[in-house]
Amino acid sequence: MMTKSIKGCFWAIIFTLSHVIFAQSIQQCEALIEEGIEKMFAQEHAESLELLIEANSLAESKGWHRQAFVATNNIGANYYMMLDYGEALRYYLKAYEIALKTPDQSQVMTVLNNIAILYFYEKNNEKAYEYFLKAYRLAKENDLDDKRAMYATNLGLVLNKLKKLEEAENYIQEAIPLVNDDPKTSLLLQMALAENKTFQGDYEEAEKVAHRLLSTFSDSDQTDNKVFILLVLAQIQEGRNQFPQALNYAREARSLSHSIQNKLDTYDYLSNLLAKSKNYELSLQYKDSVILSKDSLNIVKNTKLFETGKIKFEIQNYQYELEQSHRRLKYERKFFYTLLGATL
After folding, report:
1. How far apart are CA 168 and CA 187, in angstroms?
2. Using CB atoms within 10 A of its CB, is residue 147 exposed (0-12), middle (13-18) or buried (19+)?
3. Quick one: which of 101, 209, 107, 212 has its CA closest to 156?
4. Which of 29, 36, 133, 307 could form a disulfide with 52 if both were Cys (CB 3.0 to 4.6 A apart)?
5. Neighbours of 104 (CB within 10 A)
């Protein structure tokens, strides 16, 4: 028979073990996710991935589908921000599989939209259209007008690129009364409308929308949008055969282009525009700039991928340590129940 002091020590051990084994809660999991997202936006990707992988591992072990989805989706977002689109897609598809297991359709729509955006930036517009359309249909089926407005706008943008202009216009017009007070979607919608009207040759209406938008771009956060609209205005003037005015807008867009992708787009447009206006020598110079920009973009991507490769290696080690920790926890849980059973 155990003495009082031995019994006290024994129950203290049991209490300590039970506290370690059962202390993990949904709140702790969500705190890991929140911190992981904060690290992601601070571009501290290695730390973000560690936190999100830990949260995902905990969520999966507990069967917490919502937390597992958010963690996995944001692991994909980290890789997207690091320009590793293949790895981003892999995690987005994992998130999609998790979302399909839950009744929450908003999760399914979120990841479908993320996948579509990934394809859009890779200029795989057919695949982008496919996933935007899936997200849109879900929003429509579930009477989610705010989501429907966003996905209809995205469909308008991608269909413009595919030159399916009537279909694009239908989605844009559908989104207009649904936008309400969402400034981001409202802005994208007006940009899609300006581009659509330009491609359809309705230059007067396109110009009105473009100038109205241009007057609202006041801060540096809007630079990419301003470049987009300046190129729309350039295309309007090109459509009117006003090449000097088109060149002015295109050169202004070039002067504002800081990202390599924007530089690539503006140089490419300028090269084509100059060729149309028979300035072949300068057109070739800009074509050289296109090649240099592509090389620079590939260098940036390769550098990012090298950095991502190092992070992946670190994360693989971290996942191994996490798996070992889970194995120890399972052993401790089994040991705990064995001890508990011995006292009954």
Report:
1. 16
2. buried
3. 209
4. 36
5. 13
Which pLDDT score, from 0 to 100, does residue 189 have? 95
Q: What distance in Å separates the CA atoms of residue 156 and residue 171, rounded to the nearest whole number?
A: 6
For the chain, what is the domain count? 3
Tell me which residues of the chain have a pLDDT lower than 70.
Answer: 1-24, 219-221, 260, 277-344
- Dihedral sign, CA of 173, 174, 178, 182? negative
Residue type, 45: H
Domain that holds residue 185: 103-200
Task: Please report the DSSP string for 99-143 in residue order.
Answer: HTTSS-HHHHHHHHHHHHHHHHHTT-HHHHHHHHHHHHHHHHHTT
CATH number at residue 120: 1.25.40.10
pTM of the model: 0.76
Between CA 186 and CA 172 the distance in angstroms is: 11
CA dihedral of 278, 293, 214, 169, whole degrees rounded to 10: 80
- Whether the CB-CB separation of 128 and 117 falls below 8 Å is answered with yes
How buried is 141 (Cβ within 10 angstroms: 0-12 exposed, 13-18 middle, 19+ buried)? exposed
Residue 325 domain-assigned (yes or no):
no
Cα–Cα dist 235/198, whole Å = 7
How many Cα atoms are found within 13 Å in the side-chain-facing hemisphere of 140? 11
Angle 99-80-123 (CA atoms, 0-180°, nearest 5)? 100
Question: Which pLDDT score, from 0 to 100, does residue 311 have?
Answer: 58
What spatial distance separates the first Cα and last Cα of the chain, rounded to whole Å? Answer: 13
Residues 194 and 212 in one domain: no
Distance of alpha carbon 113 from alpha carbon 154, whole angstroms: 9
Residue 34: CB atoms within 10 Å: 13
Please tell me the predicted confidence (pLDDT) of residue 82: 83
